Amino acid sequence: MRRLATATAFLIALAVNLGTAEAQTRIKDIVDFEGVRENLLIGYGLVVGLKGTGDDIGSAIFTRESLVGMLERLGVNARDDDLDTDNVAAVMVTAILPPFATQGTRIDVTISSIGDADSLLGGQLLVTPLVGADGEVYAVAQGPVAVSGFSAQGQAASVTRGVPTGGRIANGALVERELGFALNQMETVRIALRNPDFTTSRRIAQAINAFVGGPIAQPTDPGTVRMIVPDAYRNNAVALITDIEQLRVTPDNIAKVVIDEQTGVIVMGENVRINTVAIAQGNLTIRITETPQVSQPQPFAQTGETVTVPRTQIEIDEQKDNKLTVLPQQVTLQELVNGLNALGVGPRDMISILQAIKAAGALQAELEVL
């Protein structure tokens, strides 16, 4: 009996801990650490080797000048010649430089046509420098363009799938310059919340202080927690961040309802509450149907003529089955959804009802319409 009681207590404690863990989130999943960030790169280049689907040299002046300039750098004088090729396309090349990318690391690039090219299928991107916001070159891209879309056209029909004027080059750029950042030399680390909130930032600071055993973390605003590197982690901020990001906290979010009017999608948070309010939904629908009939005399009749007799049917739907529903004070999200579903309300009508409830001041949540 004693062993059974001990085992039962252990299972109950394990279940409680698992339930608590499931309700919590790792710090690394809701914050960003100072210095650990990506950088955007952009460049202008030429894609060659297209099968007659490139830019029109006559109308795309930038393509013509870029092609002439490239040929001149290679020792070919093309200024006096009448260039007429449709195998070249001017493109913009974009990439994301990962944090702490070392020299020689390869990154993916995205290719997008900026001229009147029909397709980049089969094209080859020539050497293209990629610059950052400071104008410095951080990577160089080159390689065959992989295009997922295609376009086929005949005399009477055409088919296009996807976007044939855009593509990617996997590992198509080489990092030429590193972004220096001495992470291990930092004496303080700032933690930025992806969803700023006073309660969440304080909980993160409390979790860090409880783990380290001292007041090293303090929330400075709803979106930032300032953390001092303790002596045990001196010159080893990486180890501190590794230990901190695995801690679990319970994020606290504001009550919010997000509505996408174009698609009819409604997303409501867990903390949405409704004050006492009465809801009625229904419209008067009048349907008129015209079914004219033909009236003609009997066979071999001496008199009479064939005429068209109008027949009109009118139906009025007052939606008497829809009743006025009263939602009690401080109903939960589930009760709100159940009440609206009981009225037979669709997503489109539900959007109007939520907006009306918000206008009446009964919706205790932020309403965001996309």
Automatic annotation (TrEMBL):
Superkingdom classification of source: Bacteria
GO biological process, one term: bacterial-type flagellum-dependent cell motility
Entries under InterPro entries matching the protein: Flag_FlgI (IPR001782)
Pfam families with a match to the protein in the record: FlgI
Keywords from the named record: Bacterial flagellum, Cell projection, Cilium, Flagellum, Periplasm, Signal
GO MF entry, a single one: structural molecule activity
Cellular compartments per GO CC: bacterial-type flagellum basal body, distal rod, P ring; outer membrane-bounded periplasmic space
Residue ranges of coiled coil: none
Primary localization class, coarse: other
Signal peptide region: 1-23
Subcellular localization, as worded in the UniProt entry: Bacterial flagellum basal body
Keyword Signal listed: yes
Function: Assembles around the rod to form the L-ring and probably protects the motor/basal body from shearing forces during rotation.
Entry's family note: Belongs to the FlgI family.
Quaternary data: The basal body constitutes a major portion of the flagellar organelle and consists of four rings (L,P,S, and M) mounted on a central rod.
Protein name stated in the entry: Flagellar P-ring protein
UniProt organism field: Thalassobaculum fulvum
Gene: flgI
